[in-house]
């Protein structure tokens, strides 16, 4: 609804085989329960009005007649309820029986979707009773209403753009060419599946993987409702396994062998953004589809959806370790190739005792090891100046020593002081010239030392700094290869921590842990009583907030108001709304104003789904206006 979110549900009711009235009553109860929970769509299992396991009772006229009567009552029960309801039932048409999913809304039968692929192997013998469904929709009359029958039907919400529903039934998903592929290419963003998949050992894992895989392939939501308790157990047991997936991510999953409803808040805006971004998703908009329109109420949901506050960092420890190893390998392989291509056997980088330069040195060491080069050919240069503290200086020196690289020290105070005298800069005026003069002097030192050894200057700046423009133009902004260019600050910390945990060198672990414990700072302002006086996050804001903003803006094209809403959910209890808004305004201001720095950054490897390279993921004019984004934020407060 608001911001493109919509709550959907999958339900497994308790049923009685061949008792249509009992089943309709249980379904009706669940529809009302879901509606009270503000769900706008609910999906029930395959043939649930009769039960999937009726066997040859499906050929009994009384059962089929009673099923239609109960469908009419169920349709009437939905009158005045703002919820799209999908229920499975057998339906006779032109002397043949079809396994169908009926879509209801506000008293109306909107359409009937037949099953396309009829299984007749192993424990399944549906071809004994059911015909393959027709593709092209035709008008029919059912329970006293005029409606449509066929697989090529889409249900499109008139007042909620992007909410377009298509459906398939159980085995359809297992087939090589599921109907949902055609539905998605015709514009469906939400696929339902009414199913009666029996349970065997390990089948739940395969089923879930299949659902997630199809949702990812179609860049869609997928609502799967499975038959459960009440079905005949003569030969089979049905688990009531329900799954709701969004673009490959499982949002909700039921416990097996229980009845009930699961809910999930689907993000239609995210799905539509992904489809816009992926040029290989060719939405054709087939002309033979019947598009049935419906309306839904628009209101702001109190989202029950989990919002990860650190989207660049996997939550599970095992996943995080795997991600860290992959990223370090990507970074090292990128640098390895560049060194080999240029026949370069020396590397030069500035080492400050901070996180970014630490990661860059760790990556450089790994690349040299892969090439079989002597680590002594890595020159790590510490360049103390006005803001350098003993803690960072000592950590820089210890780190280089533990890694076996070559440590050089170039104190730049005298050179910077002379430069300030030359340009008339008051050394007591700690303005931007004072700060940037030091950064550019350090870069000059690194470049000249690299020239002396025919070496390569390795960049240390990370993606979060590039997003905010928190880098001195032609200072730390510049290098010959930027190994951290697509690594966000929140992930830098975990990469260093992973190295500390796995290196099995006590001295190296100790220094890495102390670096992790040191406040992030460029150290360009003199310390106070030997302690860092300039903390980056006090000046530009918490990096965990900025990384959250960057991820949702870049990955899904979210507008500022939606990002603000998501951030308040993700960081509830950590940051007050006014703090989140303050730094979100600062993020947009800096992101737009600092694009000129990103337009000419050095080469560097992409490691994740978000990157800012002007040659790849992000091509933005340096003089683009931020007015619309800022105005939306001003409306918030």
Mean pLDDT score: 96
Assigned CATH class of the largest domain? Alpha Beta
Unreliable stretches (pLDDT < 50, length at least 5) are none
Query: What's the total count of β strands?
Result: 20
Largest sheet: 7 strands, mixed
Tell me the Rg in angstroms: 31 Å
Q: CATH H-level name of the largest domain... which superfamily?
A: HUPs
End-to-end span in angstroms? Answer: 22 Å
Helical/strand content category: alpha/beta
User: What's the overall geometry?
Assistant: elongated
How many helical elements? 20
Q: What is the CATH topology classification name of the largest domain? A: Rossmann fold
* Oligomeric state, counting identical vs distinct chains: single chain
Helix amount, in percent? 25-40%
Largest beta sheet: strand ordering: 13-12-11-10-9-8-15
Tell me the count of domains. Answer: 2
CATH architecture of the largest domain: 3-Layer(aba) Sandwich
- What fraction of residues sit in β-strands? 15-25%
Question: How would you describe the overall organization of this protein?
Answer:
The chain has 637 residues and is an alpha/beta fold. The protein folds into two domains: 8-294, Carbon-nitrogen hydrolase (Nitrilase/N-carbamoyl-D-aminoacid amidohydrolase), CATH 3.60.110.10; 317-636, 3-Layer(aba) Sandwich (Rossmann fold). Helices cover 39% and strands 18% of the residues. It has 20 helices and 20 strands. It has helices spanning 20-36, 61-77, 171-174, 179-185, 203-218, 268-277, 317-341, 355-371, 390-403, 413-423, 432-452, 463-468, 489-502, 506-516, 536-540, 543-556, 560-570, 577-593, 595-598, 627-636; strands spanning 5-12, 41-43, 84-93, 96-105, 108-114, 138-142, 145-149, 153-157, 164-169, 190-195, 221-226, 243-246, 249-253, 260-267, 290-294, 347-350, 378-382, 406-409, 456-459, 481-482. The strands form four sheets. A seven-stranded mixed β-sheet has the order 13-12-11-10-9-8-15. Helix 9 runs antiparallel to helix 14. The longest helix has 25 residues, at 317-341. The chain is elongated. 47% of the residues are buried. The model has no long low-confidence stretch (mean pLDDT 96).
């Amino acid at each position: 609804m608001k911001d493109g979110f919509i709550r959907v549900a999958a339900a497994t009711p308790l049923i009685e085989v061949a008792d249509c009235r009992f089943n309709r009553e249980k379904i009706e109860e669940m529809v009302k329960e879901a509606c009270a929970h503000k769900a706008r769509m609910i999906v029930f299992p395959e043939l649930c009005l009769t039960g999937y396991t009726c066997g040859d009772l499906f050929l009994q006229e009384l059962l089929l007649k009673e099923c239609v009567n109960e469908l009419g009552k169920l349709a009437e029960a939905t009158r005045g309820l703002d919820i799209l309801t999908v229920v499975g039932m057998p339906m006779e048409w032109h002397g043949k029986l079809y396994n169908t999913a009926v879509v209801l809304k506000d008293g109306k039968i909107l359409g009937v979707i037949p099953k396309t692929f009829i299984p007749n192997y192993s424990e399944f013998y549906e071809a004994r009773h059911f015909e393959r469904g027709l593709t092209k929709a035709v008008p029919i009359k059912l329970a006293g209403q005029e409606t449509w029958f066929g697989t090529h039907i889409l249900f499109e919400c008139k007042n909620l753009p992007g909410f377009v529903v298509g459906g398939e039934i159980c085995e359809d998903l297992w087939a090589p060419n599921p109907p949902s592929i055609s539905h998605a290419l015709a514009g469906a963003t939400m696929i339902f599946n009414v199913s009666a998949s029996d349970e065997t050992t390990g089948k739940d894992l395969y089923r879930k993987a299949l659902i997630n895989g199809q949702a990812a392939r179609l860049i869609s939501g997928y609502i799967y409702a499975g038959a459960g308790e009440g079905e005949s157990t003569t030969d089979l047991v049905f688990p009531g396994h329900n799954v709701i997936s969004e673009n490959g991510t499982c949002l909700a999953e039921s416990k097996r062998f229980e009845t009930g409803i699961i809910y999930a808040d689907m993000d239609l805006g995210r799905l539509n953004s992904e489809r816009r971004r992926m040029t290989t998703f060719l939405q054709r908009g087939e002309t033979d589809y019947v598009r049935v329109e419906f309306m839904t109420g628009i209101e702001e949901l109190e989202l029950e959806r989990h919002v990860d506050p650190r989207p660049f960092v996997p939550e599970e420890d095992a996943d995080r370790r795997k991600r860290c190893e992959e990223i370090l390998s990507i970074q090292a392989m990128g640098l390895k190739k560049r060194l080999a291509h240029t026949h370069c056997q020396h590397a030069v980088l500035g080492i400050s005792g901070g996180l970014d330069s630490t990661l860059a040195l760790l990556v450089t060491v790994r690349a040299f090891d892969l090439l079989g080069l002597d680590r002594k050919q890595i020159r790590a240069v510490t360049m103390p100046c006005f803001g350098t503290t003993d803690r960072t200086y000592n950590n820089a020196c210890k780190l280089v020593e533990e890694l076996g690289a070559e440590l050089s020290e170039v104190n730049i105070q005298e050179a910077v002081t002379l430069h300030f005298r030359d340009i008339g800069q008051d050394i007591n005026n700690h303005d931007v010239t004072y700060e940037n003069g030091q950064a550019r002097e350090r870069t000059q030192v690194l470049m000249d030392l690299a020239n002396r050894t025919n070496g390569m200057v390795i960049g240390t700046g990370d993606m979060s700094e590039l997003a905010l423009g928190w880098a001195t133009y032609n200072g730390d902004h510049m290098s010959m290869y930027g190994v951290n260019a697509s690594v966000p600050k929140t992930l830098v910390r975990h990469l260093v921590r992973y190295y500390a945990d796995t290196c099995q060198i006590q001295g190296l672990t100790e220094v890495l842990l102390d670096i992790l414990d040191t406040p992030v700072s460029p150290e360009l302002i003199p310390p106070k009583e030997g302690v860092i006086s300039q903390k980056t996050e006090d000046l530009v804001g918490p990096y965990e907030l900025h990384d959250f903003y960057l991820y949702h803006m870049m990955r899904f094209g979210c507008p500022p108001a939606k990002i603000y809403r998501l951030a308040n959910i993700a960081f509830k209890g950590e940051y007050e709304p006014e703090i989140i808004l303050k730094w979100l305004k600062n993020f947009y201001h800096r992101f737009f104003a600092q694009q000129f720095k990103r337009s000419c950054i050095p080469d560097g490897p992409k490691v994740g789904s978000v990157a800012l390279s002007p040659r790849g993921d992000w091509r933005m004019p340096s003089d683009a206006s931020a007015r619309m984004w800022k105005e939306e934020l001003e409306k918030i407060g």
